[in-house]
Amino acid sequence: MRASTTGRVLHDPKGGSFRFDAGAVCLDFVHTGGEGPYAVFESLHAPDDLAAWLAEPPLDVTLTVPMTAAELDTAKALRQAMWVVAHARADGLPLPATDVAVINHAASAPSLAAQLASDGVTAGWAAPVTASQAMSTLAREMIGLLTGPLAGRIRECAGERCPLVFVDSSRPGARRWCSMERCGNRHKLRTHRARPSSDG
Question: Which positions fall inside the Zinc finger CGNR domain (predicted)?
């Protein structure tokens, strides 16, 4: 991954959008859609959708081998496994073995290989660049996150009915919200409305 910037713009199916920085690219990927009640947030409807997501910073991955529908299904299975383990870690629960196996399987494939450009100051990805390599890179980042110094900082947003997960890399470790502009402000508004009126 060539840039340190994380975060993507998430779109609410009811309207509106906001920028959410999960603190790790693998967790940004986790929030591209979901299963069950979260299927309404699905953004990866076709292989081209995932290819476009991968092409954005910080990955800047341009696939040189077209992605197949089967590879998209595999990527979504990895996404779901990472969603489950991230929430399990945030809740202090054991990580489900089946989901751990899915992540490990994805990580066992060759990952993206960085390649220095001829100018000596920029980098790209060595060809061929495949969807499998991109998923392996994300799976390996997830493993590093779960086993690294920020493993205890994986949290679920404290907002009411907000399932977004993030890694709190702030120095004080006091992040509570997916976004201060979204759930943070909603909490402030509810708190303000709940205060007794000074007129009484």
Answer: 153-195
